[in-house]
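Researcher: Quick test of sequence recovery. Tokens follow.
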């Protein structure tokens, strides 16, 4: 079993962080979990969540037989 993390703010999920001028950042958010970015590093996801005022959620990935 493998864990990944996603950052959520309200009903939106973090897709990417873009650098813009003068050390400022812009965050792209999506409303669909399929389009969100998944992080393998909890500390990275937690830091992004703190920057935008959101929460970090853990998703457990399990391999299943078809």
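Model:
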């Amino acid at each position: 079993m493998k864990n990944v993390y996603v950052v959520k703010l309200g009903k939106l999920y973090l897709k990417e962080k873009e650098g813009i001028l003068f050390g400022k950042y812009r965050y792209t958010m999506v409303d669909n979990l399929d389009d969100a970015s998944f992080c393998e590093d909890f500390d990275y996801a937690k830091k992004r969540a703190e920057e935008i005022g959101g929460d970090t959620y853990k998703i457990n990935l399990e391999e299943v037989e078809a």
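The radius of gyration is 13 Å.
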